[in-house]
TrEMBL record:
NCBIfam families: PEP_his_kin. The lineage of its organism: Bacteria, Pseudomonadati, Pseudomonadota, Alphaproteobacteria, Sphingomonadales. It comes from the Bacteria. The gene is prsK. It is an enzyme of class 2 (transferase). It holds the Pfam family GAF. Keywords: Kinase, Membrane, Phosphoprotein, Transferase, Transmembrane, Transmembrane helix. SUPFAM superfamilies: ATPase domain of HSP90 chaperone/DNA topoisomerase II/histidine kinase, GAF domain-like. Residues 483-685 form the Histidine kinase domain. Gene3D superfamilies: 3.30.450.40, Histidine kinase-like ATPase, C-terminal domain (3.30.565.10). PANTHER family: HYBRID SIGNAL TRANSDUCTION HISTIDINE KINASE C, TWO-COMPONENT HISTIDINE KINASE. This is histidine kinase. The keyword rRNA-binding does not apply. It catalyses: ATP + protein L-histidine = ADP + protein N-phospho-L-histidine.
Length: 702
């Protein structure tokens, strides 16, 4: 068969290369203190030579047979020298006769080789010679496997660490030979498929064997992942199932006629139905998982994978994802393979209130709360409740009497896990019984305790964020009210000052005229304030339009002229782009603050001019002034004021209003000398030169 010849050539060539590389690696990198190092190098080299001969010549040639015999002698000697690592080549003399017997059986192949090439002239003699050689190789493989088992099982603990890789490789090599020659003996000829794989098998076995000679080999361990173990166990179950089906089909071959065909068709239908129903079931997968964990692993959980899965479950985001409480109960249930669960969170009274459930049956939903006494006990003891223990009458801290009847009587309820954050109970998770029933053990308790604390921190953080959002809403409301109260306070100050002056100048017609103007302006201001009330605290700055900065300053001066000495010292026309109403409101704040900071005889001065690019407006007073620290850290901070009884939002609101127009507000002050506030707004004619959209400021912060 052409494909078999090609496959044999490729696999034997690969085996020769791998064995040669392993021989060189052991010679250069292997542990020089081991007395079996040289025999190992020779055995690997002879194996490479055998693979090279098998790839170069046809099967059955004398040179191929002779190189295989040499290879087998080398590996037997290597096995014998491995006993020397434990000193047993001197003390366990009973091992030597076994090696001598195996070497004698292997040496008989020289005789069989001679007979096969000289005296096997009939097909019967050829077949007899082949079967005898195969039987001898089976005996050698069985004897070698027994010695490998004795080598590893009888070794001391330190020697097992040293020999485990070599013993595993030797066992694999002779196990393959045992199967190969057993099949060959049964068939009466070499199996073509297995013959094509012999070279590749030799190369595969050589790698762990060479690895065992590394200086750090005693610290190396083969630790298959749990996923690999579960899949391997699943494959074993499926393989056993298929072998059973094949055996039944083989047995049915003895039947004849329509009965045989009827039984075979029925068997195929039954086998297919059973495979579709039984193999994909969650209960079978759970049984495989429990069996693998029980017999293959020291610990129940793969902590790395569990933590990765837990993090992925909690960290999922998106509009179509579940809420954090639902993700929390799912993350906890996934650890114990629980099919469903519930989450109770503490309320203001300390009771536990149902907050979320994951796959819990709607018709089995419990009452909405759990007693506060149970919550207090779980918080104090951090006790994970095993409901099966409570049903059996076991009581640790008196929790059995505090568990509600509906929870104790529900066979689905399996465990209750308290969620503690800084020794304060945040919630309680109820886990359903896994599909494969088992008892909670110390590993469940330890892992659930750690994970529950992490979950509690997430839930507490979410609750804190919700509280901050709610507090922010109240703060926004209070800030709006503070702005309103500030504006009303300014109007009240104007009215009070007007009343004081009216007592002195009520008989003067000029004062009465100014008083009417002031009253009209105050009424207009109140109406404007009511209209603007809904816009406080929002980002709507209104549409920007051109207006004359000098005209706005002049109206503000006229507004305060009746109550204090306010003058417009310099007035140049400056056509700027902004919100005239908002700017006037900001100027009112600045002028009122300047008046409050000045004495009754001190005048407040306004100046308006242009520098060719922007319009400038100065508000200057000669009052108390402000310290450098307050100017830097407190002036534009909301609710921070240097005036007794002040709200501390006038300067902040004025700056934000001017910023919304694309301008800026700067402040200079010296204690005992006075202050100067500078409003800068872009001119309409130069707006395009600044390269700034009307509603997007491009100035530095003050």
């Amino acid at each position: 068969m052409a494909w078999a010849s090609t496959a044999s050539y490729v696999t034997y060539t690969i085996g020769a290369i791998v064995c040669a590389i392993c021989a060189v690696w052991v010679a250069t990198k292997g542990d020089t203190s081991r007395n079996d190092r040289t025999p190992a190098i020779v055995a690997l080299a002879l194996t490479a030579n055998w693979c090279f001969a098998a790839a170069s010549f046809e099967p059955g040639r004398a040179i191929v047979e002779l190189t295989e015999i040499a290879r087998n002698f080398a590996w037997l000697f290597v096995l014998f020298r491995h006993f020397a690592n434990d000193g047993r080549d001197e003390t366990l003399r009973i091992v030597r006769p076994a090696f001598v017997a195996l070497c004698f059986v292997e040496a008989l192949h020289f005789v069989l080789l001679l007979v096969a090439h000289r005296y096997a002239v009939t097909p019967q003699l050829v077949s007899l010679t082949f079967e005898t050689a195969a039987m001898f190789r089976v005996l050698v493989a069985v004897g070698a496997l027994v010695l490998v088992h004795n080598l590893y099982v009888g070794a001391a603990a330190a020697s097992r660490q040293l020999l485990r890789w070599n013993a595993a490789a030797l066992a694999g090599m002779w196990a393959f030979d045992l199967n190969y020659y057993t099949v060959a003996y049964i068939l009466g000829s070499a199996p073509v498929e297995l013959s094509a794989l012999r070279g590749l098998a030799a190369g595969i076995v050589a790698i762990p064997f060479a690895l065992g000679f590394a200086r750090a080999a005693s610290g190396l361990e083969f630790r298959p992942s749990r996923a690999v173990a579960f899949r391997f166990l699943s494959l074993l179950v499926i393989g056993a199932y298929l072998m059973l089906m094949l055996g039944l089909a083989r047995w049915l071959d003895m039947l004849t006629g329509d009965l045989a065909r009827l039984v075979q068709v029925g068997l195929v239908i039954a086998a297919g139905a059973l495979a579709l129903i039984w193999l994909p079931s969650a209960q079978l997968r759970g049984w495989l998982r429990v069996t693998a964990v029980k017999h293959l692993f020291k610990h129940r959980y793969d902590y790395r994978n569990e933590w990765i899965r837990f993090t992925n479950t909690i960290g999922r985001t998106g509009f179509d994802e579940t809420s954090l409480p639902e993700r929390a109960i799912k993350a906890l249930a996934d650890i114990t393979d629980s099919p469903s669960g519930m989450l109770f969170l503490t309320d203001d009274d300390g009771a536990l209130e149902l907050a979320a459930d994951w796959r819990w049956r709607e018709d089995e939903m419990p009452p909405p709360t759990l007693p506060s006494a149970l919550a207090a006990l779980l918080e104090q003891k951090e006790l994970i409740v095993d409901f099966d223990e409570g049903r059996a009458g076991i009581d640790h801290y008196g929790e059995r009497d505090l568990i509600p009847d509906w929870l104790r009587d529900d066979p689905t309820a399996w465990a209750a896990v308290p969620l503690l954050h800084f020794d304060r109970l945040v919630g309680l998770a109820i886990l359903a019984r896994p599909l494969v029933t088992r008892k909670l053990d110390w590993e469940d308790f330890d892992l659930l305790t750690v994970v529950s604390r992490q979950l509690a921190s997430y839930l507490a953080e979410q609750a804190g964020q919700a509280a901050l959002i709610e507090a922010g809403r109240f703060d926004e409301f209070n800030r709006r009210m503070a702005f309103v109260m500030h504006d009303i306070k300014n109007l009240s100050s104007q009215m009070s000052l007007l009343l004081r002056n009216a007592e002195k100048h009520a008989d003067k017609p000029e004062f009465r005229a100014d008083m009417l103007v002031t009253l009209r302006n105050s009424a207009d201001k109140l109406n404007t304030l009511l209209a603007r009330l809904g816009r406080y605290g929002t980002k709507d700055k209104g549409a920007l339009s051109p207006f004359d900065l000098a005209s706005t300053a002049r109206r503000v001066v006229d507004r305060f002229s009746a109550i204090h000495s306010v003058s417009l010292l310099r007035s140049e026309s400056a056509l700027v782009l902004g919100d005239e109403e908002g700017l006037e409101q900001a100027l009112v704040h600045l002028v009122q603050n300047a008046i409050d900071a000045s004495s009754a005889e001190s005048s407040v001065v306004l100046e308006v001019y242009t520098d060719g690019v922007s319009g400038k407006l100065h508000v200057i007073d000669h009052g108390q002034g402000m310290s450098a620290t307050f100017l830097r850290n407190g002036l534009f901070k909301p609710f921070v004021s240097s005036k007794e009884g002040g709200f501390g939002i006038g300067a902040f609101e004025a700056r934000e209003t001017i910023r919304g127009m694309g301008g800026r507000l700067d402040a200079e002050s010296r204690e005992g000398i006075g202050s100067r506030f500078t409003v800068t707004l872009p001119l309409q004619a130069t707006k395009h030169l600044i390269g700034q959209a009307p509603d997007k400021p491009n100035y530095e912060d003050a």
